[in-house]
Amino acid sequence: MVTRTLTLQSDPTGIEIKVQHGSVSYWRVTNTSIVVDDGTVITLIAPSVVGEPVATPELGWYFKEWKSNGTLLGSERAVQITMDADKTAKAYFEIQEYFPTRRPTRRTDKFEGKIDSEVMASRVTALKSMMVDQQRSTTAEQTRIETLVGSALETEALYGSQLHHYRNFSQELYGLTKLFRSATLNKEASLKAEKWRTRLVADGQLDADVKTRLQKVANIFNITLTFT
Predict the structure, then answer these.
(1) Domain of 145, in residue numbers
(2) With the C-alpha atoms ordered 204, 205, 208, 211, is the resulting torsion angle positive or negative?
(3) What pLDDT, in 10s, does the model give residues 63-90?
(4) Nearest to 185 by CA among 7, 30, 193
(5) Distance, CA of 35 to CA of 46 (rounded, Å)
(6) Quick check: 80 and 66 in contact, CB under 8 A?
């Protein structure tokens, strides 16, 4: 399957951009790259303003426009890009000075004014049973995955702490499956695998064995790892 790479940038850099495609929704801090299947339609959502004044005079970064490979996409914060080729999307922000009559703490004061402790307490109480059920379900799934890891590596003659490392890796992969799909999932998982590969080789395991074991764990999630 053909994949495409979207290079996500911003001016200034280091800004968190929301990314959506299909049923997947996540955030990326610029500058970064995203790998998806050919033809995927990606929605990028930039924040309207970056930073908040803490004392006067202060400057804030306001969203201005999107450009893709130098072509203007528009001034709306949300923009769609069809990945029929490798592309670059860049969000531009401009500095604007806050009005001198505006209190630096205006937004904080407004937020705190909305907080009602009784309402918050009642909401938490109402959600407790659902939260417990979700935790039980997640714990059961994590236990099942750890059992599968033990079965996949049972012929590897690993001692306790070594096997524990691979189980930790499996939990990281489990978390990634909640966020990504397809080629993006494979890429994100490969980045995690490289971290564990370095650690396990440093602990004295052979590189070839580590790669094989990490892939066995990844097979549980139908993930294909790529090592550098």
Answers:
(1) 136-219
(2) negative
(3) 899 999 888 998 999 999 999 999 999 9
(4) 193
(5) 19
(6) no
Regarding whether 36 and 105 lie in a shared domain, the answer is yes
Same domain, 35 and 107: yes
* Residue 226 domain-assigned (yes or no): no
Q: Is 17 left (phi over 0), alpha (psi -120 to 50) or beta?
A: beta
pTM, 2 dp: 0.45
The total of structural domains in the chain comes to 2
The 8 Å CB, 24+ separation contacts for 221-226 are 221/173, 221/174, 221/177, 221/189, 223/173, 223/185, 223/186, 223/189, 224/186, 225/186, 225/189, 225/190, 225/193, 226/186, 226/187, 226/190
The answer to whether residue 123 is domain-embedded is no
Tell me whether residue 145 is in a domain. yes
